[in-house]
């Protein structure tokens, strides 16, 4: 080999090496280093692009604003768990369990503490039930969604909140109504009235059922359309937010006027019946009543899962006890903001049971035993949250508003402890940097109230209902604080899942967040329909999402005060169109089908939801 050939060969090798080195250097230059300056153009969602040994430093630097709850999932996943297998084995199942527990806690807090206190306030102040049902109790029922939306808006996660509200509306108006139609087919015109009440009354009720259905359907369709128009440019201005709130106010006014004219017409019918001697004052049916009343001694909450089967409740009633159902109170703990007025008729249900039950014995069946096992397991699961709520959220139910009601030692200890500790829940929830003056003021107020309650309830023969009202108001405020804390932690977990899986906030809101928050509605509305009140369940399926959409977006946006920017993904728009398609279907086909919701209607509605969800997932994958 000559020197020249060696030289040429070396030159060729150096040239090739130089090319490779330059290419490799350019690739390295594109990779971010551990220097924060190189991450300036990156966001928390880009953590997957960072080498694993730098991910901890990256999330500490970039994900601070995403950490809004108590648990720091980013630190646990990217800093504490080094092995990828440990991350998948430990973290993913754990966060799934946490999400489930948070959803249950939301429903439990609203059903067991917020709504009972709110109902006590409404009853004691003698607020008309149609007004309280459309305002106070409606807010209590929708508080998990509304407060979740507020937390999302406050933490700049508006897309997650809007996605949840639209997704919940999609799920409830398609899947839940469809499930009701499959489980309990019903007709809007099937009424059973006493022959003594005459044909005019039946015509009034049938006409009212149809008109109320069209009214609710129209308002819901209008609301979805307005939300879609307001979101189309990705900006929620003050004018748009005021428009949404105004539509809900218009809805409330329309219902109040509707009930006023309906009751006026009923009064005329009753007067006509009495003139013709066709009306018997002793009959169990009363057209002048405001609703079907459920006696206080047998009242219960339709809170999430805890009363999944009401057969055992009915079995525990003694022989031939007469129960008056009141739909407005029966539904006070759910998402129905109004009732179908045609069902507001007093009825008596007589339960014939054996002599053993008449003597106070309880009939146990295999189904009851299975239910008891399920309920015991559920009660055990919610024991931590129920215990925490018991000692931090004052609870004063309306049956305690009696001058002679006495508290035993356990009840008194729990009440006094919750009054004193409620201040810390409120401060932790709503005051980011409390000062010593705030602590002093809250400590003074709660200490004085605790002392006054102790002296009053233990020494006074006649108790003051005004003091109980103050405790109910304090319990209501504290329950809102608890729901806000839980909602914030829920959003914290969902935001981490969004970063981890690279899913958009909108699709998480449309699916996991929406379905999780709607499980309670699914169970309670199915139970209500199986108890023989499908129209009431139908009203709940329209009224609840309507409230959450209009006030959840409109009112929360006005409270935040700033211009709210929403990342309007194609899946959000797609969901709105599928909701409108479903409304169009039931608005046209149900009247054509003799105003019946049969199983075919149910299957079509569920299919619309399933296909729409599938389309949303495809949009998320390919965009």
Automatic annotation (TrEMBL):
Localisation: Membrane
Superkingdom of source: Eukaryota
Protein family according to the UniProt entry: Belongs to the Ca(2+):cation antiporter (CaCA) (TC 2.A.19) family.
GO biological process per UniProt: intracellular calcium ion homeostasis
GO cellular component: membrane
Gene3D superfamilies: NCX, central ion-binding region
Keywords for this protein: Membrane, Transmembrane, Transmembrane helix, Transport
Native species: [Candida] arabinofermentans NRRL YB-2248
Keyword GTP-binding listed: no
Annotated Sodium/calcium exchanger membrane region domain residues: 96-256, 472-616
InterPro entries from the UniProt entry: CaCA_antiporter, NaCa_Exmemb, NCX_ion-bd_dom_sf
Primary location group: membrane
Name of the protein this chain belongs to: Sodium/calcium exchanger membrane region domain-containing protein
GO MF annotations in UniProt: monoatomic cation transmembrane transporter activity
Membrane topology: Multi-pass membrane protein
Transmembrane segments: 90-111, 165-186, 212-232, 241-261, 410-430, 436-454, 466-487, 507-528, 535-560, 572-592, 599-619
Keyword Transmembrane helix: yes
Entry-linked Pfam families: Na_Ca_ex (PF01699)
């Amino acid at each position: 080999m000559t020197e020249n050939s060696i030289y040429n060969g070396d030159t060729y090798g150096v040239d090739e090496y130089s090319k490779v080195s330059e290419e490799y250097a350019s690739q390295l230059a594109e990779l971010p280093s551990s220097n924060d300056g190189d991450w300036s153009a990156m966001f928390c969602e880009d953590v997957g692009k960072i080498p694993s040994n730098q991910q901890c430093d990256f999330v500490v630097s970039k994900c601070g604003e995403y950490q809004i709850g108590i648990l720091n999932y980013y630190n646990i996943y990217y800093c504490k768990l080094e092995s990828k297998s440990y991350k998948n084995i430990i973290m993913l199942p754990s966060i799934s369990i946490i999400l489930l527990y948070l959803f249950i806690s939301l429903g439990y807090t609203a059903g067991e503490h917020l709504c009972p206190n709110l109902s006590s306030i409404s009853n004691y102040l003698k607020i008309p039930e149609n007004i309280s049902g459309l305002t106070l109790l409606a807010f209590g029922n929708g508080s998990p969604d509304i407060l979740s939306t507020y937390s999302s808006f406050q933490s700049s996660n508006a897309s997650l909140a809007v996605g949840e509200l639209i997704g919940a509306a999609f799920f409830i108006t398609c899947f839940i109504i469809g499930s009701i139609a499959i489980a309990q087919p019903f007709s809007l015109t099937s009424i059973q009235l006493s022959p003594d009440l005459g044909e005019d009354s039946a015509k009034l009720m049938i006409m009212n059922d149809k008109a109320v259905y069209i009214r609710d359907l129209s308002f819901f369709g209008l609301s979805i359309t307005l939300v879609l128009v307001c979101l189309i440019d990705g900006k929620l201005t003050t004018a748009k937010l005021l428009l949404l709130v105004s539509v809900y106010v218009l809805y409330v006014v329309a219902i109040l006027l509707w009930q006023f004219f309906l009751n006026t017409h009923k009064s005329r019918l009753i007067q006509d019946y009495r003139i013709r001697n066709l009306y018997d004052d002793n009959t169990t049916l009363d057209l002048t009543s405001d609703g079907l009343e459920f006696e206080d001694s047998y009242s219960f909450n339709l809170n999430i899962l805890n009363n999944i089967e009401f057969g055992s409740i009915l079995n525990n009633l003694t022989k031939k006890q007469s129960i008056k159902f009141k739909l407005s109170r029966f539904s006070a703990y759910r998402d129905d903001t109004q009732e179908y007025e045609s069902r507001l008729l007093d009825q008596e249900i007589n339960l014939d049971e054996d002599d053993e039950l008449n003597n106070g014995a309880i009939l146990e069946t295999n189904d009851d035993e299975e239910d008891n096992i399920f309920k015991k397991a559920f009660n055990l699961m919610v024991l931590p949250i129920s215990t925490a709520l018991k000692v931090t959220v004052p609870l004063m139910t309306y049956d305690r508003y009696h001058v002679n009601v006495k508290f035993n030692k356990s009840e008194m200890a729990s009440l006094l402890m919750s009054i004193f500790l409620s201040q810390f829940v409120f401060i932790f929830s709503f005051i980011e940097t409390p000062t010593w003056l705030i602590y002093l003021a809250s400590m003074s107020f709660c200490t004085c109230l605790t002392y006054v309650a102790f002296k009053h309830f233990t020494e006074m023969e006649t108790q003051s209902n005004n003091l109980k009202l103050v405790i109910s108001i304090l319990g209501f405020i504290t329950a809102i604080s608890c729901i806000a804390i839980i909602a914030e932690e829920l959003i914290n977990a969902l935001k981490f899942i969004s970063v981890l899986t690279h899913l958009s906030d909108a699709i998480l809101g449309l699916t996991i967040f929406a379905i999780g928050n709607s499980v309670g509605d699914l169970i309670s509305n199915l139970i209500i329909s199986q108890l023989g009140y499908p129209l009431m369940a139908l009203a709940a399926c329209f009224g609840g999402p309507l409230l959450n959409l209009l006030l959840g977006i409109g009112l929360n946006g006005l409270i935040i005060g700033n211009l709210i920017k929403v990342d309007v993904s194609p899946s959000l728009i797609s969901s709105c169109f599928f909701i409108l398609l479903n409304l169009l279907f039931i608005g046209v086909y149900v009247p054509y089908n003799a105003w019946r919701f049969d199983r075919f209607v149910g299957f079509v509605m569920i299919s619309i939801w399933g296909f729409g969800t599938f389309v949303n997932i495809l949009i998320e994958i390919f965009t």
